[in-house]
Design goal:
Blueprint: H1 2-5, H2 11-20, H3 25-38, H4 55-62, H5 66-69, H6 77-86
Helix pairs in contact: 2-3, 4-6
Length: 88
């Protein structure tokens, strides 16, 4: 959400307003994190066993994913690495 927020204009704000009755893309990301925590869904990749040594392989695999190709913001391999590292 944070990676795409500046690229999607007001779309995240609209989703956030509808789902959480609050403005802003960053707020949407925070509200999703709260929801994940409430449902006891891991919020960090490290919680499911992913380690820094796995990042390159996961980033490479992500680049072949249809969801990456359909992402609203173009994703480079460096972007994928950075997002994954930020989620450890």
């Amino acid at each position: 959400i944070r990676f795409n927020a500046a690229h999607v204009g007001g779309k995240y704000e609209a989703v956030n307003a509808a789902a959480y009755d609050a403005p802003g893309g960053d707020t949407l990301a925070k509200m999703v994190e709260v929801s994940l925590s409430d449902m006891r869904i891991p919020r960090r990749l490290s919680e499911i066993g992913l380690r820094e040594q796995h990042i390159e392989a996961v980033a490479q695999e992500a680049m072949t994913s249809g969801s990456t190709k359909a992402n609203p913001r173009p994703v480079t391999l460096d972007d994928a690495r950075a997002v994954l590292l930020s989620c450890l």
